[in-house]
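Quick log. Single chain, no ligands specified.
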Amino acid sequence: MSYATQKLAEEKVFKDPVHRYIHVRDQVIWDVIGAKEFQRLRRIKQLGTTYLVFHGAEHSRFNHSLGVYEIVRRIVDDSFSGRPEWDDSERLIVLCAALLHDLGHGPFSHAFENVFGLDHEYFTQQIILGDTEVNEILKRVEDDFPQRVADVIGKTYPNKQVVSLISSQIDADRMDYLQRDAYFTGVSYGHFDMERILRVMRPREDQVVIKSSGMHAVEDYIMSRYQMYWQVYFHPVSRSAEVVLTKILHRAKALSEMGYDFDQQPTHFKGFFDSTYTLDEYLALDEGVLLTYFQLWMTEKDPILSDLSNRFVNRKLFQYIEFDLAKDYMKMKELELLFKKASIDPEYYLVFDSSSDLPYDFYRPGEEGERIPIHLLKPNGEIRELSRESEIVEAISGKRRTDHKLYFPEDILTKDGKKKALKKQILDLLT
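-> predicted structure:
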């Protein structure tokens, strides 16, 4: 028996709050889960700073990755198996890609990426292809197997049907994180009838389609996603925490470039400050490491680094107001000038941030970032794009919603002390 087809002597299961059980029968999958690079995901939160708003949101990328694997396993083993449009030889490829799709996430994910100009999908592919335990396990299948898995995650794999199970507008990734994030945050928005969607998914040529009888379940899924983005993922307090976190890393990087003598040397960050980091240095970082540095930096000599670290660790976050930078550009310039006069560095304490989301889009040839739409399979075999059949989806198709906020330390501006009149002037402008 080859390693690719080797089964465990007894099925392993993970008890899961979303899917009840996650089933593992393949030796390859079991071995990948045990690899140190995959175990690292236990130390990376799925929702970054959101736990500072929704206290239950402590779940990890490890939880989510297992969930995505389980959804894909159910699709290929239960819904697709035996259908002529599905090539069962792709089964192990898509299961591994589902399990490993988030392998390259760093601590606090997108905030960390934005500061240092990183891309978690790039690191996912590098871990799969590099000198790692994951690579060694995947190569036991075939020498080119790691590259094929990496290609699925990079969306360059020739079988688009396989890619769409991991990355599309209705994929296993989204179906898991919506339900999982709703469960752990305690909100009701992210729930939809996944069982129904899985029952009506069908393989067709280079895509996955949904039987038209399941259209209402898909509508529910899209609206659930829309609500989760605005009520949870873009929550302004979570964004405030992300702003503070980002500014801590920016400040530490700036101090390092100035030759500042840290009381607690940022050894783990050196390679990221000067862009000389290695894959091993990237893998050595997790959220425990960052939080340890933040606690140590609370007593640093630099008042900005010390203050920002204290704010994040002890949840003393920035206040915020609605603010449209395009309309209020001159007001922003005036605020920056007043902040400097008040000896408050606007680089770190006056931060504009915006969020936007496109809940569903249809195909627009040639457009940057075009999305493959969701297609419905009619009883007569005709394929129809979802928004052409659903009035609910048509109403939100292609409509990007954007939200703008300006973040600032209200406590500093209201504290008694020097330059009281100047601070009041700033507050009047802000409020």
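Confidence is low (pLDDT under 50) at residues 363-370.
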